[in-house]
Amino acid sequence: MVSEKTLFGKIGTYLLFAGPTTFAFFTVVILPFLFGVYLTLTNWDGLSATYVFVGLKNYRMVFEDRAFWTSFGLTLRYVAYTVVLTNVIAFTLAYLLTSGIRGQNFLRAGFFVPNLIGGIVLGLIWRFVFSNVLVYVGKRFGWELFLRSWLAHPDKAFWALVIVSVWQSSGYMMVIYIAGLMGIPKDLVEAATIEGATGLQRLRYVILPLLTPFTTVCIFLSLQRGFIVYDLNKALTEGGPYKSTELVAMHVYEKAFLAQQYEIGQSEAFFLFAMIVGVTLAQVYLGKRLEVEQ
Amino acid sequence: MAQRQRYREGILEVLRLSFLYFLLVLYLIPFFLVFVNAFKDRNQIIANPFRLPSAFHLANFIEAFRKMNYPYAFWNSLVITVLSTALIVFFSSMTAYLFARLPWKFNRFMFFLMVASMLIPFQAIMIPLVKIYGSFGLLNNRWTLMYMYLGFGCSFAVFLYHGAIKSIPLELEEAAMIDGCSRFQAFFRIVFPLLRPTTTTVAILDVLWIWNDFLLPSLVLISPRNRTLPLSTYYFYGTYTSEYGLLLASLILSITPVIIFYLFMQRHIIRGILQGSIK
User: Fold this and answer.
1) Is the confidence at residue B15, as pLDDT, over 80?
2) Higher confidence at residue B150 or residue B197?
3) In the predicted model, what is the mean pLDDT of chain A?
4) Is there a domain that residue B256 lies in?
5) pLDDT at A1 > cutoff 50
6) pLDDT one-digit tens code per residue, A199-228
7) DSSP readout, B159-189?
8) Residues 98-117 of B with CB under 8 A from A
9) Nearest to B226 by CA among B107, B143, B159, B151
10) Are B120 and B151 in contact (CB under 8 A)?
11) Phi and psi angles of residue B219, each rounded to the nearest 5 degrees, phi first
12) Which of B54, B231, B58, B69 is nearest to B142 (CA)?
């Protein structure tokens, strides 16, 4: 057995246990990331073997790319709506499904189903629902709302995207909220009831505060998902009609691989990264403060 | 009084139940619609998407099965998912063990780097990733894809295993090592078996992620022969846009494996999701 005390022995032990992951992690995540930073400072077009250092020009180009800022604003709106709706619905489901209702395990399992399937297939399923089934309903009953496919209308296509995202994620967050609710001691809630607290007061002053760590996790996860959503966007609306539902992740993809402006696409991806880091840190900080205050 | 109370609670229970089942029907109706219409032809679908099919003709399924190269796509997905998950479980558990048991400065740094890297969105990496691997001629290769899954998946797996290993008492391994086990043997004979719940969690999260992933394989696997199930479903959809029955049959074919997996593993899946999210 090699001694773990000497430097040589330490390196040996490290390579034996962590060599493969370290190598894969660096070559797949860290080096491409750093190379990406370098790319944004050059004029690489994706084809040429040589490229010139151009300083911050690409980042300036990002500010001139109006389409990027449109889709950035759209993404913020999309994230805001999906995070709020997902968490409200997920919490409601979890609350109802921890009250000892008959068949609650079956119901939980049912609401979770959309999470088993990838965004591409879910998007295609809902494409059929929005452009065939609902249009049929609209025509059959003369409902103005559904007469034309939602996916052909810029504003409605955005809401279609929000609805499908909420539909998918709420079952996932529900599972987390259920775990949180089951961890709340029963006697605390009973004590509040004996003291005369109404259902809403119990919710506001006992249950929600005790649930804060779980809420933080759910909001964190739904924020993350919202910012990087691509599959669903691609399969459901393809960014259309007329690019009106092109979220940032999709914009970056199109910029780089279809418009072949790799350097600008990469710079825009870093804006997305900065946004995610900023929002995540702010959210974790706020969550921690809420926990401390109670 | 007590009777009235019970009466009120009974009504409340019925209300809650009907609300929940109504919601469940709303949640699952898209799947039902896709399933029902997959047995019809185009005209029947347009005539009324809610009507049950007059007969359960399998023609759409057989044609979709053939045209989307289902056996190939299924096999590709299966091989890539199973092997990538095995790689992640095997190597990440070892790495986490090293980080948890030997807190050298470098190990702490690497652990921190891995956890921090989880914030990087895939979009910030994909362009240079394609560029680098393309220039080495490594794209369009299933092994490259599995290797990338190890690279992307190891951080989170190491993080989960790290937490689990911390809670295993040290005495067990120490005793084994005094009896002449090497650290490597001590890990695989003693620690790894105790990590089974975490292994289930990691495996389930990674299987669902890799099986359903679209963007990474769409960048790496270019030739149709290598396509995974989500890729071949998507390209199939692009080719036959107006043949609804066929398209819906392809969607059913593509979700069936995961639904079967869920029927058997439901409890583990829900628990796995939970353990993976609240850590």
Assistant:
1) yes
2) B150
3) 86
4) no
5) no
6) 788 888 888 888 888 888 888 889 988 998
7) HHHHHHHHTS-THHHHHHHHTT--HHHHIII
8) 98-99, 102, 104, 106-107, 110, 113-114, 117
9) B143
10) no
11) -85, -30
12) B231
Please check whether residue A53 lies inside any domain of the structure: no
**Overall number of domains in chain B:** 2
* Whether B73 and B21 share a structural domain: no
Residue B39, Cβ neighbours under 10 Å: how many? 22
The nearest alpha carbon in chain B to A163 belongs to B27
Answer yes or no: is B279 within a domain: no
Instruction: For residue B1, count other CB atoms closer than 10 A to its CB.
Output: 5
The answer to whether position B216 is within a domain reads yes
Chain A and chain B share a number of CB contacts under 8 A equal to 244
Q: Which two tokens stand for residue A75?
A: 């993404």
Query: Which domain, by its residues, includes B17?
Result: 2-59
B250 part of a folded domain: no
Interface of B with A in 124-183 (CB under 8 A): 124-132, 147-148, 150-152, 154-155, 158, 182-183
Cβ-Cβ contacts under 8 Å, A1 against chain B = 182-183
CA distances from A60 to A36, A225, A264 (A): 17, 28, 9
